[in-house]
Design goal:
Four copies of one chain form a homotetramer. The first copy, chain A, contains four helices and ten strands; from the N terminus they run E-E-E-H-E-H-E-H-E-H-E-E-E-E. In chain A, helix 2 crosses helix 3. Chain A starts with a strand and ends with a strand.
Chain lengths: 163, 163, 163, 163
């Protein structure tokens, strides 16, 4: 299967900075790469579009993301995105693109701190794309892969829950 | 989504035994449980059927597995299985069961040694089950979820590859 | 060997909070306990005195720490402490206590994110206490165990360096 | 402090081989290097002498080890060694060398599986060498650093215990 993965940053990628004591969004793809290294049956194009906490993603950034998707030759697309504004980006993409299978995913816990949740969320998207699904904009988080309209982040619980 | 997970053992579950210096298949589900803990949108029934290296799985064990599946009220089933005889079990299940969505998965690297591959393989199955798939016997490994007939383990490379 | 370990908090103990996205100093001793679990030859008394980032440690806290040490029946004491004010606490202890072997240690990287540095720093202290050392106030960090007067944190590099 | 680290192999270094499903002693020093990377205050010479399970270490290998130590310009020496024959090597070294501070260490759990025990054992040795100790042959394991004559491996418990 051919697939484009677009990395926009977010908690999924964050790494601890021992100097500042903070978690930074790095410009590298080490978190993602560790997963991709064992996907022997996929032909993946990896695009590092942004390296931002999703609270810092602007409307301009979303236009850039839409253009990036429009320029993709692959119809299967997974987007790594911060969780706080994942829905805003999903809505923006939905307004412009209807002819692809696009799945947004991310993590509440950085891959560099604990690999389970980030790996699961991303791999849910890969598993879903292996099936005969319809074009659309989906979110893959916490065991579910559904239309972005049918899932929401519960900020108090730190969970994405199907509505 | 309702789902039954049947654990039969295999490398996925193995843990290091400091006394013997060997990797044992434990009777507990700690590896699996760590993943299930972040699948907030799934209603999972977990059955620990066997705790065996797959080279030790007998025809009797396979009959037990078939009966276990037949007794499941859920139609979505994921089976954790050792990689060496995953195909034999898949074939045995295919001979007896046609009315469920059954995905076998496992790992080349124990979850307790590195979480990425085991989590990915299992989560591929979860993602695939989120899609409108047909009844059948599938294998989810290394980025692919396909009919068990269309994927094989390459023992020299330690990879499951789509044929 | 008998030994008292006093946990005052600091980066050594920090754990990621998925709800806030921040690293918190927990009130538990899980980081420390993971190391203590394999120190089969030590008779350790563990005291959780404070759970603070060291920038938040007050003069009152330091007096509490001094009293805690004075009340210890053990002469071997290891203190887990944040790195930013480790020296202030060392100086305060030095002004009041001269009849014990006291080693302050901590970490630049939380044990929960990467176990190597935290485990090394703490174990340096344990190794040093196994030797026939003189009473004094020492700091164990980054390969060195020396009088607190002879080592300093280089904030730009994130390293404790012997002066 | 100047220090020579001699790696002879053993469980400390073992890594999982996904093809064979076994734990191999690698010829690289990745386990050790991860610890050395945060010992900013040490001037370390690293010698990879052997890469063997300690049950496979021969008398010839021990003579090679003795010669390696005799050729060291540093008087502080830490030896990474498998746990099963650590005592045989310690005795052999004691028969030939009296003018150095030599500490044997290792691990019951590979660094690549869990970093805590291996890092602790090695760092005990580093901490001990920071103190004004006498020349001798020591073993650093499980919280203790004592003469090799005063500690023994309890094979049933998987622990080194001071006698």
């Amino acid at each position: 299967m051919k697939l484009t993965v677009i990395n926009t940053g977010g908690t999924f990628n964050k790494v601890y900075n021992p100097i500042s004591g903070e978690l930074d969004v790095p410009t590298h793809n080490l978190a993602l790469q560790k997963i991709l290294d064992v996907t022997y049956n996929l032909d993946i194009e990896l695009i590092t579009l942004l390296s931002k906490d999703s609270l810092d993603i602007t409307e301009n950034d979303r236009q850039t993301l839409v253009q990036c998707i429009q320029n993709c030759s692959n119809e299967n697309i997974v987007i790594i995105h911060g969780t706080d504004t994942m829905h805003l980006s999903a809505e923006c993409i939905a307004q412009h693109i209807g002819n692809k299978k696009i799945i947004l995913t991310g993590a509440m816990i950085p891959m560099s701190i604990d690999e389970t949740e980030a790996t699961m969320n991303f791999s849910l998207a890969l598993g879903f794309l292996n099936a005969p699904i319809q074009n659309g904009i989906y979110i893959a988080m916490h065991g579910a892969v559904v239309s972005y309209k049918n899932i929401a982040k519960n900020k108090e619980q730190g969970k994405f829950l199907v509505q």
